[in-house]
Amino acid sequence: MAFRAEIDDFGAFYEATYRAAFRTAFGILGDRGLADDVVQDAYVSAYRDRDRFRGDAPARAWLLRIVVNRAISSVRGSRPKVVTLDVATTPDPADPDDAPARITASLTLEEALRQLAPRDRAAVVLRYYHDLDYAAIGGILGTNANNVGVILHRSLERLRRALVVSEDLGPVGEASHV
């Protein structure tokens, strides 16, 4: 019950956690409007169910679990977007005049994240946006810390492959700051 007091002043809780909640939803969804809808829905749910919050873990983790579940539910059934490069439009790295085309052809981190399954995106967002440990991520995702390690390892490998077009072009895209 040590963490119960965190949600006693729900307005202050909202202000203290909104940015983290939005970053989480946006990281999973990649769409600002949808992320905003998911976050607002999560806060309504958290406010309505605040009496059921046990207080045995930080309220922020409880809220992030709600946000992650809502975000994953909002994309369930839809396939992740796959961004491909047409070989014919891939710029010649030796030609400096092709620099704008190279930038256009490159994937951004956000686009690469959208290629991951929603649950995998959630794990990456929770680990690298919020610096949560594997146990906390496992609690939010409803799995154990070992499985979180597997999810993150697999997801990072997929991101690496998505962010590298070829050895000739090298890494592409820049980390997008939300």
Q: What attributes characterize this protein structure?
A:
single chain, 178 residues, mainly alpha, Rna Polymerase Sigma Factor, Chain: A, Arc Repressor Mutant, subunit A, 2 domains, two-stranded antiparallel sheet, 8 helices, 59% helix
Q: What's the level 1 CATH class of the largest domain?
A: Mainly Alpha
Topology-level CATH name of the largest domain? Arc Repressor Mutant, subunit A
Structural class: mainly alpha
State the CATH superfamily name of the largest domain. Answer: Winged helix-like DNA-binding domain superfamily/Winged helix DNA-binding domain
Beta strand count: 2
Q: How many angstroms separate the termini?
A: 33 Å
Radius of gyration: 19 Å
Separate helix tally: 8
Number of domains as seen in the coordinates: 2
Described by strand count, sense and barrel closure, the largest sheet is: 2 strands, antiparallel
The percent of residues in helical segments reads 55-70%
Low-pLDDT runs of 5+ residues are 79-94, 101-106, 165-178
User: What gross morphology would you assign?
Assistant: globular
Name the CATH architecture of the largest domain: Orthogonal Bundle
Q: What amount of the residues lies in strands?
A: under 5%
Give the averaged pLDDT, no decimals: 79
* Strands side by side in the biggest sheet: 1-2
Written description of the protein model:
The protein is mainly alpha-helical and 178 residues long. It has two domains: 4-75, RNA polymerase sigma factor, region 2, helix turn helix motif (Rna Polymerase Sigma Factor, Chain: A, Orthogonal Bundle), CATH 1.10.1740; 87-171, Arc Repressor Mutant, subunit A, CATH 1.10.10. The chain has eight helices and two strands; from the N terminus they run ααααααααββ. Strands 1-2 form a two-stranded antiparallel sheet. Helix 1 (10-29) runs parallel beside helix 3. It is globular.
